[in-house]
Amino acid sequence: MSKLVLIRHGQSEWNLENKFTGWIDVDLSEKGVEEAKNAGKLIKEHGLQFDQAYTSVLTRAIKTLHYALEESGQLWVPETKSWRLNERHYGGLQGLNKKATADKYGDEQVHIWRRSYDVLPPKIEDDSKYSQVHDRRYADLDPHIIPRTENLKVCLERVMPFWEDHIAPDLLAGKNVIIAAHGNSLRALTKYIENISDADIMNLEMKTGEPVVYTFDDKLNVTNKEKLDD
Description:
The protein is α/β, with parallel strands linked by helices.
């Protein structure tokens, strides 16, 4: 039986500042570093050992993975980074303070942008300082593939090819896998793994730095789910 551990990155600097982050590359806050290290300690305490690690191409997730692996004595585990595990792209909301945005557009509209499964936020302009079209880490992608905005539905469609090509084959081969990524990319994976409805997924929260452990049978059916905490 294979195991999959999902960890949402520790608190980021923009989580702390209450800003829409999306694909903008920000670092972990001091609290975020401690959350990531604590995740690694919990992993070690529960005797979880990994064969493969995955993360996004964003610093806050990469560092979370490294801290967790280091604390659990597994920094050597093979690691693959992919833009497909990036946070949901918040479009024109990226870089804005969430409260100020709610004051401008209304709480209800901002709630819809944040929580609706298939409503898109406004697109970001390519000349915005918060756009990723000129970011070197995406230089090998067709420019049309780089999102200008995403909802959870689009995020799921972007994540699934990576699940099908990498994560699922590893699990089917009996490997234990750890993924350090983001609230929405992990919610997308959780929706698929647990077959959660479009309506119910809106109520799912991923706590920063909390390892979620799935155990699968040889048909990738979930036989157990456990959240690790102190």
